[in-house]
Amino acid sequence: MGIVHHAVYLSYFEAGRVEYMRRRGIDYVDWAKRGIHLPVVEANVRYRKMARFDELLMVETSLEAMTRVTIRFGYRILRHRDGQELVAEGFTLLACVNDQHLVTCIPEDLVTVLQGPETRTRPDNEI
Question: Starting at the edge strand that comes first in sequence, how are the strands of the sheet with 40-47 ordered?
Fold first, then answer.
């Protein structure tokens, strides 16, 4: 049909979340080596406009809330051409678990980094 499949928006959310963490210096592989994992336990998408196949989109990601064991990220997907038209919005809720997949507290150093400013900028060659 030439439009983005509804399930793909969750992949866009993941890309936004990974970039949010990367820009704050969080390397997921390093956290995994420490036994810290952040699986998605809830996801919500509200579709506002359709996106076409191969259309450039922007994903705005924000840290909405954090408890001792969960992190909630919010997302807004916008058309790249004007950066104003809202295509979709939603959130994901992540739980902090250890290597045995048992819920564990988010380490304080991770909390500090997640709540802190960006320490890495987007490379000039990225859209």
Answer: 40-47, 86-95, 70-79, 57-66
Please give the model's pTM, rounded to 2 decimal places.
Answer: 0.91
Confidence check: pLDDT of 80 > 90: no
Task: Write out the residue range of the structural domain in which residue 93 sits.
Answer: 8-115
Q: Quickly list DSSP for 93-119.
A: EEE-B-TT--B-PPPHHHHHHHHS---
Mean pLDDT, rounded, for 78-103: 94
Q: Look at residue 3 and tell me if it is in a domain.
A: no
Asked if residues 62 and 26 have their Cβ atoms less than 8 Å apart, the reply is: no
Quote the number of domains for the chain: 1
In a domain, 58, yes or no: yes
CATH number at residue 58: 3.10.129.10
pLDDT in tens, 44-71: 999 999 999 889 999 999 999 999 999 9
| Half-sphere exposure at residue 31, Cβ-oriented, CA atoms within 13 angstroms | 22
What are the tokens at 90?
């939603």
